[in-house]
Amino acid sequence: MRTESDVLIAAPESAAPIAAAAAPPRRGRGRHRDPDPRHRWSSTGLGVAYPIAAASLLAVTAGLSGLALAHVTLAGDHAVTSTQLLTAAATTVAATFFVLCLVRWGLAGDAGVLGAGVATLVFGVSCVAIPELALPLIGTASATASWARAAQAAGLLTTLTLLALVALDVAPSQSESRRRPGWVVTAALTVAGVGTVVLHTVHGLLPAIPTPEQSAVGHGAPVAASLILAGAWLLAGTACGARGLWQGRPLLTWTGLMLVALSVSYGGLAVADRPGHIWILGSALLRLSGLLVAVLGASLELERAFVEQRARLFDSELSARTNETRWQLHRARRRDRDHDLRSALVAIEGAALTLERHYDTLTDDERDRLTSMLSSGVDRLQSLVVDDSRPRASFALAEVVRPFVGNLMAEGESVAVEVPEDMVAVGSPAETAEVVRQLLDNARRRAPGGTITVRGEHDGGAIVLRVHGRGQDQEVPGIGRGASTAPGRALAEPSADLPMGLHVASRLMRDQGGDLWVEAQGSGRCSFALSLPAPALGAAGA
Questions:
Q1: What stretches in the chain show pLDDT beneath 50?
Q2: For residues 536 and 425, is the Cβ–Cβ distance under 8 A?
């Protein structure tokens, strides 16, 4: 007799990663859902790269401080040349960070990330490139000093304003904000440009803003301005870093680390009391290091975003394939049910018409037999209607396994079955049958010529069915031949290469309150196991 799942077309294999692997039986299936998953301290997504980057910046700061205490100086024009090279590199890295933030915004629509990228771009253009590179190349220091001071002041005000908006989370985050980034960049650079022109008219009232380039040419950086700027960068960095940790937005946390590096960079200029002081070069070096750290963090966050997008895509495909499989199962079940309904109706109609037309000519035995047929047909019809309205029911696991095992043995496969006839589980018989079919097909494909063992057993309040084969080609994907893992370990590594049908089977089991997982015992041997709830005490026959 053909089972309901025989009509299914086997799902093609796929090398996509397991986005949602099943787990072994566990007590308590309730899952707590955070009403606002952004507001939490856990799952920051920083990994080990963040403490390594912070330690690297700390090491650079410590090294520069040690050289300053040793009174190391740079002779001649080395400080000027070196800071110019570092300034050019810093401008390029700032633009790179903006591009990475722009891509990240395109994936998630996080306006805070876009704001941090635009602020860094404004800083690189208006505070670094224009006053320290462009203006010195087009005129003498005296002719461009007022413009450089105005551009730097306007850039600092615009940058700190944008960072304050990001830290205060004024702009909407996530996908609610889908404004075109071109307008944001244009507006920020326009504000910085207009501010430069306005501040140039009152440049005499502007304080002397320290930069590595100006400190190398002049006689040291203004101490008060250096300390004020260091405090402002530190405050902005702390606020951005805390916001990133609180909301689980790693890129803002990396931005906070970059701003802390800028704070130390400006603070170091406060002790640069002569043109050849080591902190003149060190300030430019630490500024570049902070920007490089931000680019590293943005790259890692972008990679994580692509992995998440790939996982979502795979989950969507898996959901579609699962729904298609469930629809095919439902169609096959309805077809079988319609056939059974027609058979029951024909039996009822035949018995009823015979009793009605030939009641007087029938013997007592014939009347009893026809009445029994009529009663059994009504009972069958009643059970079909009740079963159709109840998606989950108790069923004997052996009845689900037996048809597929018979087919394999008819094809010459060696199958050992250890499933008690009285083992009853609660779930969907049709979906469970499809999962068993997938597991048997997988075992036969991975262990050609070997014996396939199907064993059912009780595990607390669950029924567990294990399917495993033994052969030369048997190997657990993602673990490798000969590896030994604890039983019940779910294969959730992205490299796990399992057929799409097994992913669909895992989803089918979880949707009906069960589980599907892989157990590896080493020596190229593994077993796939599924579990379903056992009937409650006294409800086995429900």
A1: 1-42, 173-177, 389-390, 472-474, 476, 478-496, 539-542
A2: no
User: According to the model, what pLDDT value does residue 81 have?
Assistant: 78
Q: How far apart are CA 253 and CA 297, in angstroms?
A: 9
Q: 25 to each of 435, 459, 462, 487, 530, how far by Cα in Å?
A: 17, 8, 7, 11, 9
Q: In terms of Cα–Cα distance, which of 48, 44, 57, 43 is closest to 241? A: 44
* Collapsed DSSP state (helix, strand, coil) of residue 456: strand
DSSP designation for 123: I
d(CA 491, CA 527): 12
The single-letter code of the amino acid at 17 is: P
Residues 463 and 534: beta-carbon distance below 8 Å: yes
Q: What is the pLDDT of residue 143?
A: 58
In sign, the C-alpha dihedral spanning 116, 251, 247, 36 is positive
Q: What pLDDT sits at residue 158?
A: 94
Residue whose pair of structure tokens reads 């609180």 in the numeric block: 246
Nearest to 265 by CA among 344, 210, 186: 210
Give CA–CA dist 266/286, Å, rounded. Answer: 9
Three-class SS string for 77-93?
A: CHHHHHHHHHHHHHHHH
Dihedral (Cα; 135, 137, 141, 142), 10-degree rounding = -70
pLDDT of 4 reads 40
Cβ atoms of 54 and 257 closer than 8 Å: yes
Given the structure tokens 């010195």, which residue do they identify?
136
- Residue-level pLDDT at 217: 59
- Side by side, the strands of the sheet bearing 462-469 are 414-418, 451-459, 462-469, 525-533, 515-522
Burial class (CB in 10 A: 0-12, 13-18, 19+), 489: middle
Tell whether the torsion through CA atoms of 527, 530, 536 and 541 is positive or negative.
negative
- Cα separation values, 45 from 113, 247, 305, Å: 15, 11, 10
* Distance in angstroms (rounded) separating the CA atoms of residues 525 and 531: 20
Which residue from 118, 132, 21 is spatially nearest to 87, judged by alpha carbons?
132
At 339 the pLDDT is 64
**Taking every pair of C-alpha atoms in the chain, what is the biggest distance, in angstroms?**
129
What is the value of pTM for the model shown? 0.65
